Amino acid sequence: MRKFALLIAMISVVVLAKLVVIGPWSGAEQEKFMPVLKAFEEKYGIKVEYRAYRSEDLSKILPAQLNAKRAPGDVIFMWAWFIQDQAKKGNVVDLTGIINEEDYVPGALDAVKVGNKIYGIAYTGKVKPGFWYRKSFFEKHGLKVPRTWYEFKALLENIKHIPGIKAPIASGDGVGWPLSDVTEHFLITFGGPYVQKDLIEGNLKWESNTVRYAMGKLVELLKKGYFGEPTEWTMALKQWWNGDYALYFMGSWITGMVDDPKDLGVFTLPGAKGVVFGIDYAFIPKYSKHIEEAKKLIKFLATEGQIIQVKQGGHMATYKNVSLNDYPPVDREVAKLLRGMKALPDLDDSVGGIFQKTFWDQLKLLWVDPDRLDEVLKVLDEKMEE
């Protein structure tokens, strides 16, 4: 009888020690995430099962389950605004004290805080760091990375006169988001990192002097013909790589879309103090049956797990203790730019709705007719108020 009781106890421990992680990655991305979970299992002896769900699907499923005090997983990756919203409803475990906010890229945890309490972790993510260039192109034409705004304009003027160049900067387009990315970079650089947050929250008008000044810098370059005509972004990528353009503003995922990543270089606009960082966030549902084990896993993901993840390539860490040497060479260039930068949310994605589509359409108009800046800013203010 005692042996039977002991067996039952051992089985119970095994059941208690198994965690379910729900995340958005499948295919190749999932393969790069699994080594992180394996390392956790080996360190703590706690089994982990991974289930892939699109965030869009989770947004429809999770609210009802959480309201019913049920948890489909013990650690769930989800949008920051969703975590914050559910935290306000009392459905998320408070992680304050489990992780140290000072150990992360400034601003990385802002989106999952309610007051002074932290309800989610910032894992790794993708960034939109700046202007990409081919090192071989710069070397061939004796070009150098600019350190000031005036050097940047001088660089564009030099590039404009290189034979075969259509324009210095490729203008990626599609539904409109590549144009919005470069526009946000100008807003952040010349308006300051907090302009992004103030615009998202509606605390700053598009027609304000701050925004008008930042947008004016972009318009100045548009009027001089430094940007090419808006072209479907993957086609623009090919044209840029082939030498039709010298610079291309794009996210860090570009490293996996070119023939020779080692030939890539990247720089921000001189003076930039923040970059848009698409961070993957995770939380623990209050109704998990294994909260203490889940806390161990979520702390592991927030810290040493990030080191394992970035080594797989294609991810940028939010955890400051990840060394530049932990990155593959092609990602290391991007990681260098993040040092000292404030992590910021994507503006049009954060606002969403009718504003997002209007923002994209108005930027297409601005690229064609830069003199209509006043009209564009007025329309954006009107849509923010709807």
Essential attributes:
single chain; 386 residues; alpha/beta; 2 domains
What fold name stands as the CATH topology of the largest domain?
D-Maltodextrin-Binding Protein, domain 2
Name the average pLDDT.
92
Helix fraction by DSSP (H/I, runs of at least 4): 40-55%
Tell me the CATH architecture of the largest domain. 3-Layer(aba) Sandwich
- Note the quaternary state here: single chain
Low-confidence stretches: 4-15
Strand content: 15-25%
CATH domain class name of the largest domain = Alpha Beta
CATH evolutionary superfamily of the largest domain: Periplasmic binding protein-like II
Number of domains: 2
Gyration radius (Cα, Å) is: 23 Å
Strand/helix succession: HEHEHEHEEEEHHEEHHHEHEEEHHHEHHH
Number of strands: 14
User: Which shape, going by the Cα principal axes?
Assistant: globular
Summed up, the helix count is 16
Structural class estimated from helices and strands: alpha/beta
What is the end-to-end distance?
Answer: 71 Å
Q: Report the major sheet.
A: 6 strands, mixed
Task: Break the fold down into its secondary structure elements and pairings.
Layout: H1 2-16, E1 19-23, H2 27-44, E2 48-52, H3 55-67, E3 75-78, H4 80-88, E4 113-114, E5 117-118, E6 121-128, E7 130-134, H5 135-141, H6 149-160, E8 167-170, E9 172-173, H7 177-191, H8 193-200, H9 209-223, E10 231-232, H10 233-241, E11 245-250, E12 264-267, E13 274-283, H11 291-302, H12 304-311, H13 329-338, E14 342-344, H14 347-351, H15 353-368, H16 373-385
Parallel strand pairs: 1-2, 1-3, 8-11, 9-10, 13-14
Antiparallel strand pairs: 3-13, 4-5, 6-13, 7-11, 7-12
Helix pairs in contact: 2-12, 7-8, 7-9, 7-15, 15-16
